[in-house]
Specification:
Layout: E1 2-7, H1 22-28, E2 41-45, E3 51-54, H2 60-65, E4 83-87, H3 93-96, E5 109-112, H4 114-122, E6 136-138, E7 145-149, E8 152-162, E9 187-193, E10 198-203, H5 211-217, E11 222-226, H6 234-237, H7 245-248, H8 259-263, E12 270-274, H9 288-295, E13 298-300, E14 306-308
Parallel strand pairs: 3-4, 4-5, 5-6, 10-11, 11-12, 12-13
Antiparallel strand pairs: 1-2, 1-14, 2-3, 7-8, 8-9, 9-10
Bound molecules: D-malate (MLT), manganese (II) ion and zinc ion.
Length: about 300
């Protein structure tokens, strides 16, 4: 199995178009130790020929152009794409808007929970992906299914499971304590190659690693995990946004209830942060924060990162 990190940043990307925070200013100025990043997406393939996207970011067009494995193959006709499926983990802007880049009468399958499919149905612009050509397939939680699209069996099994999280920002119900969040609003994915018996987990948004999630991830080979913030209040501290990570549905890296502490007992082979917000000090390769996450055994994902298993 080949996994490509297409985009390692959270919503807004790095730098974010309207942001002059320390990190965004530094990456724009070309300061050594800062690397630009596009928005949150992975691609996965068993054979290196047919691929599935895990989330479809607003930067997908650039990500495809930057990734030769995802280019139209001139040997396979005037119109072709190696992308046969897209699996969505929530309805966030950074995870669904890239679908619009996949128009132009190319067949593939969209997989998402009923909650996320309802969002696609409610936004008529997604009808550019005609139903007959681009089926929308509802994911049932905790029931493994085989990935397929455009008549191709990708040879991979996907199991989706609910993780602690929150409904997409633009769907929040202010009158409700949990903003109207329901099961299926945020899911994690376990992708398995049943022939090689190899699996990895992809969880780009997660509010907390509770006991149930910890038990599921114990002993996993690879987990790509929510790296939005280093500290829960860093956006407040930096004067960027009046919200904590907890309010946004993202656990932080550091702290007693952060991901570093939560994973320290789980015996995971490789831990890789993705969905990293531009405020996060780990984006400075020379920062104490970066040294502390690497010292704790984590890798900081980057665009173009390739993992084979
Ligand atoms: C998030 O990850 O919290 C969202 O992508 C935020 C957003 O939609 O900007
Ligand atoms: Mn996001
Ligand atoms: Zn910024």
């Amino acid at each position: 199995m080949i996994i490509k990190v297409l985009g390692s940043a959270a919503g807004g990307g790095f730098p974010q178009w309207n942001c002059n925070c320390r990190n965004c200013a530094a990456v724009r100025a070309g300061v050594p130790g800062f690397r630009a990043r596009t928005q949150s997406s992975l691609a996965v393939s068993r054979d290196g020929v047919n691929w599935a996207l895990l989330n479809a970011s607003p930067d997908l067009r650039q990500q495809i152009n930057d990734t030769p494995q995802l280019h139209a193959d001139p040997k396979l006709g005037l119109r072709h794409s190696p992308i046969k499926a897209a699996v969505l983990t929530n309805g966030d802007v950074d995870h669904i808007i890239g679908l619009i880049n996949l128009r132009e009468a190319q067949p593939f399958s969209i997989y998402a929970s009923d909650r996320v499919l309802a969002t696609l149905h409610a936004n008529s612009v997604f009808q550019v992906l005609a139903d007959g050509l681009v089926p929308r397939i509802e994911i049932a939680l905790d029931k493994p299914f085989e990935l397929e699209g455009a008549g191709v069996d990708l040879g991979l099994t996907v199991e989706a499971f609910a993780v602690p999280g929150k409904v997409a920002l633009y769907l929040e119900d202010a009158s409700s304590a949990d903003f109207g969040s329901q099961e299926g609003d945020t899911i994690g994915l376990k992708i398995t190659d049943p022939v090689e018996k190899k699996s990895f987990f992809y969880i780009p948004g997660c509010a907390t690693v509770d006991e149930k999630l910890g038990a599921r991830l114990k002993g996993a080979s690879i987990v790509f995990f929510d790296g939005t913030l280093f500290t829960d209040d860093e956006m407040l501290e930096q004067g960027l946004l009046n919200k904590t990570g907890a309010r946004m549905g993202h656990t932080s890296m550091s702290g007693a209830s952060g991901s570093i502490a939560a994973f320290s007992k789980l015996g995971v082979g490789r831990l890789i942060y993705v969905h990293i917000n531009n405020s996060n000090p780990v984006l400075d390769e020379n920062s104490p924060a970066r040294k502390s996450v690497e010292g704790a055994g984590w890798e900081v994902g980057y665009d173009g990162m390739e993992v084979r298993l």
